[in-house]
Each structure stands twice: as structure tokens, then as C-alpha cells.
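User: Structure with iron/sulfur cluster, C-alpha cells only please.
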Amino acid sequence: MVNMETQAEREKKMTWQQIRDESIGMLKETYTAVTSGYIEKEIQEERYEICEGCSEFIKILRLCNVCKCYMPAKTLFNKSKCPKSYWNK
Ligand code: SF4
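Assistant:
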């Protein structure tokens, strides 16, 4: 069963410092990934296929339930990482 806790519900349990620190961490990770350049098309397709078979993938939205990223975009970049380390590359 997919955990459908929303970001807003999660944030209600956090202090503002935790929200700030998590937001800064996510922005740094996104900046690093997006500025790392595009990965080869074959690897992007392999990553996306792994996501499509993953229990954390929300098919209708094409989002990862763990990192909340839009996977057609996240799989494009060299330094993007699967939060569960399911990708090979
Ligand atoms: S990024 Fe990883 S955890 Fe998220 S949907 Fe893809 S394979 Fe699953």
C-alpha cells in the first residue's frame, strides 16, 4: 500500500527549522542534478522503466512517492539519484 501522506501533513509534524533544513537540502540536490547535464537516452529510459515497476511510483502523476519528483524530468540528469538506490546508473 502506498503511503499517501501529503507534504502538508508531514510538515505539520516538523519544526520550522526541520522544514527549512529539508527545503535547503532538496534545493541543493535539485541544483546539483539539473546543472550536471543530461544523461544518455538509454540510461534515462532504463531509469524510467525501473520507476514504472517500483511500488513507490505514482503512475497517474508520474511522481516518486519518496522524493516527490516528476520522474520523466528527474531521470534526465547525470547526478539525479533514486532515493532508494534502485537505479543502476
Ligand atoms: S526514484 Fe526510486 S524509489 Fe522513486 S519511483 Fe523511481 S525507482 Fe522508485
